[in-house]
Amino acid sequence: MVPLVRAAQPADLPAIARLAGELVRLHHGFDADRFMSVRNVEAGYARWFAKELDNDQAVLLAAEGDGGEIVGYAYGRLEPRDWNALLDAHGGVHDVFVAPEARQKGVARRLLEALVAALVEKGAPRVLLHTATANRAAQRLFRALGFRETMIEMTYTPPRR
Ligand SMILES: CC(C)(COP(=O)(O)OP(=O)(O)OC[C@H]1O[C@@H](n2cnc3c(N)ncnc32)[C@H](O)[C@@H]1OP(=O)(O)O)[C@@H](O)C(=O)NCCC(=O)NCCS
């Protein structure tokens, strides 16, 4: 399978939202105190991505399998300067997810290469992403694509009263 990576269309949104729901649950499973979980998150994602399809600062890509089914997606957008993070304008890679049956075939690599290229084409002078500490596979993927580690996030949970 050589997946077709292309701009997402409105008809793709139910399938992309299902994958986004999996991404949310994966992270909640890594650390439920840090990564929130929302009921029926798929509906929220479908609404949000429908808006982002009309946003020229955003990029939503779909990977299509041989039968036309959506096997993965990637989402990012241009983000403004953030003084608190000492972070100037940049492209943010926010989501990448490949369906389990389509993994280890280069789908994420193709999605991310296309997403980064699109963000750079839109003017991003740098591209950043955040990845869960526990997510070693994703870190390996991002390193293989030239991303380097630049920040460590730490979370404190107060004792329950
Ligand atoms: C991480 C994920 C996106 C990788 O998708 P994929 O299509 O299987 O990745 P690719 O086949 O394009 O792999 C590209 C590179 O990533 C790394 N990689 C991918 N999966 C890996 C795994 N399970 N273990 C270790 N490294 C892995 C490898 O460096 C690989 O290159 P190689 O095959 O030359 O060794 C996929 O496993 C996934 O959707 N996981 C759940 C969601 C997720 O973690 N998203 C990232 C959130 S920050």
Notes on the structure:
There is one protein chain. Helices cover 34% and strands 20% of the residues. Strands 1-2-3-4-5 form a 5-stranded mixed β-sheet. The radius of gyration is 16 Å and the shape is globular. The chain has helices at residues 13-30, 41-52, 107-121, 136-144; strands at 4-7, 58-64, 70-79, 90-98, 127-129. The model has no long low-confidence stretch (mean pLDDT 97). It has 161 residues and is of the alpha+beta class. Coenzyme A binds at residues 23, 26, 96-98, 103-109, 131, 135, 137-138, 140-141, 144.
End-to-end gap: 53 Å
> Ligands in the structure?
coenzyme A
Q: What is the overall number of helices?
A: 4
- Shape field: globular
Give me the Rg, rounded. Answer: 16 Å
For the biggest sheet, the summary is: 5 strands, mixed
Structural class: alpha+beta
- Biggest sheet strand order reads 1-2-3-4-5
Proportion of helical residues: 25-40%
Unreliable runs: none
**SSE string, helix = H, strand = E?**
EHHEEEHEH
Short précis:
The protein has 161 residues and is an alpha+beta fold. It has helices spanning 13-30, 41-52, 107-121, 136-144, and strands at 4-7, 58-64, 70-79, 90-98, 127-129.
SSE blueprint:
Elements: E1 4-7, H1 13-30, H2 41-52, E2 58-64, E3 70-79, E4 90-98, H3 107-121, E5 127-129, H4 136-144
Parallel strand pairs: 4-5
Antiparallel strand pairs: 1-2, 2-3, 3-4
Helix pairs in contact: 1-2
The structure holds coenzyme A.
The site of coenzyme A has 19 residues, from α1, β4, α3 and α4.
Keywords:
binds coenzyme A; globular; 5 strands; 4 helices; 161 residues
